[in-house]
Specification:
Main location: membrane
Protein name: Thyrotropin-releasing hormone receptor
Order of helices and strands: HHHHHHEEHEEH
Function: Receptor for thyrotropin-releasing hormone (TRH). Upon ligand binding, this G-protein-coupled receptor triggers activation of the phosphatidylinositol (IP3)-calcium-protein kinase C (PKC) pathway.
Keywords: G-protein coupled receptor, Membrane, Receptor, Transducer, Transmembrane, Transmembrane helix
Number of strands: 4
Number of helices: 8
GO molecular function: thyrotropin-releasing hormone receptor activity
Strand content: 5-15%
Radius of gyration: 29 Å
């Protein structure tokens, strides 16, 4: 079968393209048919193996975290509550992205097989999991800062019930924020030579209109949390490592012990460390 170039003025007769009776003018103004393209076998095998390992380890690991914390009463702590939220978010991202990526290795080009609802739901779940993960880490960081730098206040602020309420708030906010993705995607037809009725998952509006949304994602869930992490962990490091905590008793005038001036510093730092252990137990 001869190739038909729609970008040229070449005359394409009905005997050289799918057996259809179409005129040269119709073909020239019709859709651009692409050459079929597939991933190489080596690319498929390597991609499937490595992404399959990531998927299995990630899914099993996150499920185990949730089960262990849920069934072990002694692990019902504020810190572990945030870790469970993070595990659920990571699990959601894995489920919504990795299987589709592996399946794409064996499909034609950017073909989409899950229909318009699948396009909307999978994209929504990916953004929801990523954003909820970022917010969970942020809440966890703030909780660690309070527990270490303000141990007395932490007894009343860093509680399991408060942590659960914060996690509920995180997920509600993430769901509302990401809900537009249920309407910002669609499936559109793609045309490959020799194939019909193929679709791809794409944007429903002009791509330029998504720039503001992407910039909001970048600022709210990446830039601002990163700045907050740096500040809070810097304060935590100052509390834990700038105070002089003697790992072995010093000797002064032949006697073993701390001097009076350093004892207050050491007691304060040790109290902070004890509070960290207390809230993690």
């Amino acid at each position: 079968m001869a190739d038909c170039d729609f970008n040229s003025t070449m005359d394409c007769s009905n005997s050289t393209f799918f057996g259809n009776s179409t005129t040269n003018e119709t073909l020239l103004t019709g859709p651009d048919y692409l050459d079929p393209s597939y991933y190489s076998m080596n690319y498929r095998i390597i991609g499937t193996v490595f992404q399959g390992i990531v998927f299995l380890v990630g899914v099993l690991g996150n499920i185990m975290v949730v089960i262990v914390v849920w069934q072990t009463r002694s692990m019902h702590t504020p810190t572990n509550c945030y870790l469970v939220s993070l595990s659920i978010a990571d699990f959601m991202v894995l489920i919504a992205s990795v299987p589709n990526e592996i399946l794409a290795y064996y499909l034609l080009g950017d073909e989409w097989v899950w229909g318009p609802w699948g396009c909307a739901i999978f994209i929504f779940l990916q953004f929801l999991g990523i954003n909820a993960s970022s917010l969970s880490i942020t809440a966890f960081t703030v909780e660690r800062y309070i527990a270490i730098c303000h141990p007395m206040k932490a007894q009343f602020i860093c509680t399991v019930q408060r942590a659960k309420k914060i996690i509920y708030g995180v997920w509600i906010f993430a769901c509302i924020y990401c809900s537009p993705w249920l309407f910002l995607t669609k499936t559109s037809p793609i045309y490959y030579k020799g194939y019909e009725n193929l679709e791809t998952c794409t944007f429903s509006l002009s791509r330029d209109l998504y720039l503001g949304y992407f910039m909001a994602d970048l600022v709210l869930f990446y830039v601002l949390p990163l700045i907050l992490y740096c500040v809070l962990y810097g304060l935590i490091a100052r509390i834990l490592f700038t105070n002089d905590i003697a790992k072995t008793p010093g000797k002064k005038n032949g006697n073993t012990g701390f001097n009076t001036g350093d004892s207050k510093k050491n007691n304060s730092s040790m109290n902070a460390r004890v509070q960290v252990r207390f809230f993690d137990s």
